[in-house]
TrEMBL record, chain A:
The keyword Membrane applies. It comes from Daucus carota subsp. sativus. Residues 1-145 form the AP complex mu/sigma subunit domain. This is AP complex subunit sigma. Its main location: membrane.
Automatic annotation (TrEMBL), chain B:
It comes from Daucus carota subsp. sativus. Residues 860-955 are annotated as: Disordered. One of its GO terms (cellular component) is endosome membrane. InterPro entries: AP3_complex_dsu, ARM-like, ARM-type_fold, Clathrin/coatomer_adapt-like_N. Residues 891-906, 924-938 have a biased composition (Basic and acidic residues). SUPFAM superfamilies: ARM repeat (SSF48371). This is AP-3 complex subunit delta. It is found in: Endomembrane system; Golgi apparatus. Residues 860-877 have a biased composition (Polar residues). Adaptor protein complex 3 (AP-3) is a heterotetramer. Residues 907-921, 939-950 have a biased composition (Basic residues).
Length: 166, 970
């Protein structure tokens, strides 16, 4: 299963953290620092695998990929295939790209909730559920529509009362 | 107007976007804590609002800060999150559930308040609400929750919407983890989902079974037909990978599956274009289908493609694949050795270490020399970290199983010496242990050990590198202990007392001084009792006196190290020739005995002994006030000996004159005693030797000695005149902190040392050994750690590949100049310590127990459709579980770790002193032990290893046959 999905920028600032087995926040940030220390010491043209057994215990594997200013990091165990996870990362980034049209770090910074929604459509409970980015986009759009619908219901009376309030 | 203050709050509330913008305004590096704590204050107010919208925005902000800025919200905002999940609006609900999934865990107190809401949402007609609830369950599940919700989730795995169904399936996995009994209820439905038309559902359920198979493969064995169908029919790469993983586990349990599997797997391997599937097929073949030759060939071919690919990922995985193959068939590695060797100089650390591991796997008796040569040349030009990784690999491979791979110990010893001179070497401790260990175990190699030790000792530059102090300590000890093999004891003494020894930590310096004592007593003994010592040399060394004739010494002291080697080798050759015929042996013996006598007369003259004594005294006198007790005691001992000798020497010389009556003086009696004590041979001692000493009658080992103080408090203990040589544990402070300075100044230091030594010689020339050697002391000591000239790395690599071209093929007949010397091994237990068996964690066993129940109940016909959890099964469960634990322990027992020989050798050196005292009592037991084993080991040291392996295999098979096999598949 997948144990964690981490997105951080090239200064080590976390942008998205998802641990599929509970870790206290302090521990999460400690892990981020350790991983960042390893990643930024690696050259550009080397393999995408890092030995993560010292951080996550035996059998843990870590795959990372750099997109512009961001590191995407997936941590998983022996029941996943390394190359397949690399493909999955590609799917994740493609989906982000479709949802934000030309995704950049800022999109991920300002759309905290939506990025979580996207990831939740791809991975549930550490298991990969959906690997087609168009399917994911469809579901995410539907969810956003639902969210907006409920928000607009709220907004109408509020804006009226606000207008009355003046 | 009356619309409450919450409305005003809402108007001016910061949104999440405002918060993020505010955070971004802070320049990197400036503290954001003030800004954050101000916002937290706001959030604390807002979150209490009755307006759900305000609350939801506040919670959103809080979730953001919790997740990315580590502001812990779990202790005060949990309730608000739960409140939001019950909002009728999807947007609020979503915010609430996200907060729950990020900040809750299975122990959160308010979790029970969530149960009803979860149940309600699981039953919601809106699929997105259902999916929110399912996603959240995965993060917070505990046993209570599982019991409460399993029915609701169970209903969903037969939902008509695949969007919901697949999420329900993977959520079940989480439920099983905390509530294994749940499997009984759901197993059949899950199996049905394997045959579902929807790829998403199949993928999800295969994923679940794959996880279950990883934990307990036995569970999935009865499902083999279903998986087989998927393997043959499926064209989805994700599903295929998971099914291959499942089969990988199943084939380990049931070897007969292999025959069925091999064709479809090869078919996929040929057909697929996806690298991930290729790699998974390869991994399956090499790990469990390796007995099928054509499949293995195909897999190795694919690995080869990976290895030569430019993509470092593929290269890395290719190497990993090879290292799985290497456990069973080494030819695959040998075939790809060029690629492997090239990877040693890759830019990527992962690839380098993987390649190193493979190279070590190729090592055999025949090629160990060549491989080590190649590796050392890599070590010299690689970065410090990898250099030490290489050294560690060489040391552990060569040292494994009592140096099983080593035939030519002389070569190995000089390799160890070479390692000490590598610039980045930090493996001092390991090398020290091996040097000492070999010295004890391999009698024939001691002359070479002394030669290598001497080379290390006389190099003052080496003293500047704290990482190799431990090696020097071993060298000093060896030169002292086996001083009779040295060509020139004066030179060794000179090295042991050189001024730069003050760079050594006290414990190691003590070893130096103690060794000086041994050398001194040896010289005096040779001088005073030349006859006796000559014969004792010849006796103890099987007719080979290691002292060269006088002319040779003169020659060697002037000649370079290379010449030393040549002479040495010639000597070895002579010996080998000599051993071929008895006549020759006799001849050489006679000849050598004749040549040794004048030698000693020439070497140990009155003049030289006097010089030696004064040298020692001058060097050590200042240390007699040392604060280090180990140093002080040893110095006092040696000075005591010198004083005694200086009183006696003139007499003896006058008395003796030209004759050999020197032997009768008091001094010679004393020296004889000391010498005899030291010449007692130290052998390795079994770990269990102590236990074999019978406890004498009347000796109470358990009794408390506290009240002894009262009885003999006023009696002063006699001052011990014996020497104790504590293990030179380097103190903590001497190891690391010094490193940086020394490393930086290495070259300067070594230059400095050269001049230091010459200056010392000039100033105290009188105390140095004089014209005895007739050599001109060279002012220039070559830098110890001079880095190799940095050539073109690529060229070097290619050369090395060429160099190794032949070396990796096992030679048909190794042309060893001499037979492997006897290596003393003690007992079977020597180095083999069974590891503690580890138990599977209880959750897994519980899961397996539960599924076992379901499976065993209906394995006569796995298709007997709807199985209801019958009473019969659950009543069985306790017993089954126990049985199961028993089996898993059985499996684990075979993973005994061969504890390295070196570890076991450590205490030996420690105990040395004690052993000497107890020798007489231990001896009988030990001798018996040694004799028995020496006989055995020459023929048997391969067998023991194979036997162990064989045994493990046998047992595994027995275990493997226990599970139930669906016969229709086979």
């Amino acid at each position: 299963m997948i144990r964690a999905v981490i997105v951080m920028n090239d200064q080590g600032k976390p942008r998205l953290l998802k641990f599929y087995h509970y870790q206290p926040v302090e521990k999460q940030h400690e892990i981020i620092r350790t991983i960042y220390g390893v990643l930024c010491s690696r050259a550009d043209n080397v393999s995408n695998f890092v030995n993560a057994e010292s951080i996550f215990g035996p059998d843990a594997r870590l795959v990372y990929k750099t997109f512009a200013t961001l590191y995407f990091v997936f941590v998983f165990d022996a029941s996943e295939n390394e190359l397949a996870i690399l493909d999955l990362m590609q799917v994740f980034v493609e989906t982000l790209d479709k949802c934000f049209s030309n995704v950049c770090e800022l999109d991920i910074v300002f759309n905290f909730n939506k990025v979580h929604t996207i990831l939740d459509e791809i991975i549930v409970g550490g298991q990969v559920l959906e690997t087609s980015s168009s399917e994911v986009v469809k579901a995410v759009d539907e969810i956003s529509r639902l969210e907006k619908a409920s928000n607009s219901i709220m907004r109408v009376p509020k804006s009226i009362s606000a207008w009355q309030g003046r | 107007m009356l619309s409450s203050p919450s409305l005003m709050d809402t108007l001016f509330q910061r949104s999440l976007e405002d918060l993020i913008k505010g955070l971004r305004l802070h320049l990197p590096g400036t503290p954001t804590s003030n800004f954050i704590s101000k916002n937290i204050e706001e959030i604390k107010k807002e979150i209490k609002s009755t307006d759900l919208n305000t609350k939801s925005i506040a919670l959103q902000k809080l979730t953001y800060l919790h997740s990315l800025y580590g502001i812990n919200m779990s202790n005060w905002a949990s309730f608000h999150a739960i409140e939001l999940t019950s909002s009728p609006f999807f947007g609020h609900k979503k915010v609430g559930y996200l907060a729950v999934s990020i900040s809750f865990n299975s122990n959160t107190e308010v979790l029970l308040l969530l149960v009803n809401q979860l149940r309600k949402d699981l039953g919601s007609p809106c699929e997105f609400e259902v999916s929110l609830a399912l996603e959240t369950i995965g993060f917070v599940i505990n046993q209570e929750l599982a019991v409460n919700l399993i029915d609701n989730v169970f209903v969903l795995i037969s939902s008509s919407k695949s969007f919901v169904r697949k999420k329900a399936i993977v959520t079940l996995l989480r439920v099983f983890e905390v509530y294994p009994d749940g499997i009984k209820v759901c197993f059949k439905r899950l199996v049905e989902n394997l045959e579902n038309g929807d790829v998403g559902c199949v993928s999800a359920s295969v994923g679940v079974f794959c996880e279950l198979a990883m934990r307990e493969p036995r569970l999935c064995l009865p499902l083999a037909p279903e998986f087989y169908k998927i393997l043959v029919d499926c064209r989805n790469n994700w599903v295929l990978i998971k099914v291959l993983k499942v089969f990988g586990k199943l084939a380990e349990l049931e070897p007969r599956l292999g025959k069925k599997l091999v064709d479809p797997v090869c078919e996929h391997l040929r057909r697929t274009g996806a690298k991930s599937v290729v790699f998974e097929c390869v991994r399956t073949i090499v790990s469990c289908l390796s007995e099928f030759d054509y499949a293995l060939r195909l897999a190795v071919e694919k690995i080869r493609e990976f290895l030569v690919d430019d993509d470092p990922n593929l290269k890395y995985l290719g190497l990993q694949g090879l290292s799985i193959v290497s456990r069973k068939c080494l030819w695959a590695v040998v075939e790809n050795k060029d690629a492997v060797i090239k990877s040693l100089s890759d830019a990527d650390v992962n690839i380098k270490s993987e390649a190193l591991r493979l190279v070590m796997a190729m090592v055999s008796e025949d090629n160990v020399t060549e491989i080590c040569k190649v590796l050392i040349s890599y070590a010299i030009k690689s970065d410090p970290e990898f250099c030490n990784e290489i050294l560690a690999a060489i040391l552990s491979t060569c040292g494994s199983n009592v140096y099983e791979l080593i035939i030519d110990f002389d070569w190995y010893i000089s390799l160890l010496g070479e390692m000490a001179r590598i610039q980045h070497c930090q493996k001092g401790e390991e090398i020290e242990n091996q040097l000492i260990d070999i010295g004890m175990r391999v009698r024939d190699v001691r002359p070479e050990l002394v030669r290598v030790g001497r080379d290390l000792l006389i190099d003052p530059a080496l003293l500047g590198n704290p990482f190799i102090h431990r090696i020097l300590s071993a060298a000093a000890w060896l030169c002292g202990e086996h001083v009779q093999f040295t060509k020139n004891p004066f030179e060794v003494m000179d090295a042991l007392l050189q001024p730069r020894t003050n760079l050594l930590p006290a414990s190691i310096r003590a070893v130096y001084i103690h060794s000086a004592f041994k050398v001194l007593s040896f010289c005096l003994h040779s001088y005073l009792l030349p006859n006796e010592s000559a014969s004792s040399w010849v006796d103890s060394d099987a007719g080979e006196p290691y002292l060269l004739s006088e002319s040779e010494i003169l020659e060697t002291s002037n000649s370079s190290a290379l010449n030393d080697d040549q002479i040495y080798e010639q000597r070895v050759l002579n010996l080998a020739e000599g051993a071929s015929s008895i006549e020759n042996v006799l001849d050489t013996n006679v000849a050598q005995e004749q040549s040794t006598l004048p030698l000693k007369k020439g070497l140990f003259t009155e003049e030289s002994i006097k010089n030696l004594l004064s040298l020692v005294e001058t060097a050590l006198r200042p240390l007699s006030g040392s604060h280090e007790v180990e140093i002080q005691e040893r110095v006092c001992n040696i000075l005591g000996l010198i004083e005694l000798m200086q009183g006696e020497l003139p007499n003896s010389v006058i008395q003796g004159g030209e004759n050999f009556e020197k032997g009768e003086s008091k001094a010679s009696d004393f020296i004889k005693l000391v010498h005899d004590a030291f010449s007692e041979d130290l052998g390795p001692i079994s770990l269990s030797a102590q236990e074999r000493v019978p406890i004498p009658d009347g000796l109470l080992l358990e009794e408390n000695l506290n009240n002894l103080d009262k009885i003999c408090g006023d009696i002063e203990l006699p001052v011990s005149t014996s020497f104790s040589l504590g293990r030179p544990v380097s103190d903590k402070h001497d190891s690391v902190p010094l490193f940086n300075n020394h490393d930086k100044d290495e070259s300067e230091l070594s230059k400095e040392s050269t001049s230091l030594l010459t200056e010392h010689r000039k100033r105290h020339g009188l105390y140095y050994l004089s014209s005895d050697k007739k050599e001109v002391v060279s002012d220039y000591y070559p830098l110890a750690n001079e880095p190799e000239t940095q050539g073109n790395a690529n060229d070097v690599t290619e050369d090395l590949v060429k160099l190794t071209e032949q070396s990796f093929f096992p030679k048909k007949k190794p042309n060893h100049v001499k037979a492997r010397p006897t290596v003393v091994k003690l007992d079977e237990a020597d180095g083999r310590i069974p590891s503690v068996t580890k138990k599977l964690d209880s959750a897994n066993t519980a899961i397996s127990g539960a599924v076992q129940d379901v499976l065993l109940g209906n394995d006569t016909n796995p298709y007997s459709s709807q199985v209801k959890p019958s009473d019969k099964l659950s009543s069985n469960s306790k017993g089954k579980e126990k049985l199961h634990i028993g089996q898993s322990i059985e499996l684990n027992e075979h993973t005994t770790v061969d504890k390295s020989e070196l570890d076991s050798s450590r205490p030996k050196r420690n105990k040395k002193h004690k052993e000497r005292k107890h020798r007489s009592s231990v001896k009988t037991a030990e001798d018996r032990d040694k004799n028995g084993l020496e006989d055995k080991q020459t023929s048997g040291h391969h067998h023991t290893r194979n036997k162990a392996r064989h045994r493990a295999d046998g047992d595994l098979k027995v275990v493997a046959q226990t599970p139930v096999i669906p016969d229709f598949l086979l």
